[in-house]
Amino acid sequence: MISRQDLERLIQRQDGGKPVLSLFLDMSVDSNNKRTHHVFLGQKRAQFEELDGNRPIPTGNGNESGMGSLFERVQGWIDDNFEESNRGLVIYAEVGGDWWEALQFPVPVQNRMVVADRPVIGPLVQVLNDYEHYGVILMDREHVRILSVYLGTLLDELEFRGDPIAPTTNHHVQAGGYSHKRFQRHKLEEMRHFFKDFSEEVERFVTRYRPQHLVLMGTDQNVARFKEFLPQPVAEMIIHTGPAPVDGPASEILARLEPHLADEHERQGQELIDQVRDRAAHDYLATAGVQGTLTALQEGKVDTLVLAKDGQMQGARCSQCGFVFVREVNRCPYDGSEQLESVDVMEEMVRLAQQQGADIQFADANAIADLRGAAALLRF
Hints:
The protein is about 40% helix and about 25% strand. With about 375 residues, it is α+β, with helices and mostly antiparallel strands. It has 3 domains: about 1-130, Translation, Eukaryotic Peptide Chain Release Factor Subunit 1, Chain A (2-Layer Sandwich); about 135-250, Nucleotidyltransferase, domain 5 (2-Layer Sandwich), CATH 3.30.420.60; about 265-380, CATH 3.30.1330.30. A hairpin with a 3-residue loop joins strand 7 (about 135-140) and strand 8. The two termini are about 35 Å apart.
């Protein structure tokens, strides 16, 4: 499993002075129930052997290590440690060094391999943005279940039942008469008591688990009444409501919810893109295009960054001041340094946005072709 904390740790990792392998593998199975990641690994290994003759890669400290041995280590780790229920894997490793970290998760990631001076995080950010953390509340008048759902997987399940309130009047007299009305009032008061308790449990769940959104499931009547007991900030987190049995299997409930959550995620993404497009057209606190967006990021102006999915663009970074450039430059225009290194501009933009606490939204490249692959909403 992966989390935002993993991203922070990777971003803050100190440079060990050695090249870093970032290997992303799609571990899902095909129509024949087989995994095909070994084909990608074999192709990459063959490329290194053909281009470099499996020559050692210098590590900067006098020690050298061939990529061949690193590929063998990767395959050994997969054989011994990969959990078959997962569909995505990323492995980070120093070439010729000791650092090694593997993260596996239940959703696929596009095959990709990069050897650079630091870990590549863009594909991980994309996975985390595509699969948000939801709290699913299943309730009736006497019972509530809360499911913590992340990366399409059930992480935790909480369950609460209300404590019945003893009736203040004997309701077993004269069926349909006064005592029957008193009984009905008693059950209504009991429901309100339960809903108040259930709302407090939902609040505690939100505080402890910090989901990004909530889904509320039950009969229309119960859902409408229960929402009245939720604090406004919690109620505003609800993005979908619908019918579901409170005791239904979690797997069936999640399967039923999946298309609704996907539609909601797409709707929110489209609303953001429309807003960026409108602001950029009016030149109001927005940018469009890689160069303008990169400049705004490096000036700390970006509130929300929009990037094409799986985008890559070659650029340069000044080793002295750290500024990134989309175009080819012979020397840094800011400090005159000629110590420039080749970088993936899209990866650098993701890193800058993460470090500045800006939101990131990924979209299909065709959907934002008019924005030229990158855009942003600005803070100022």
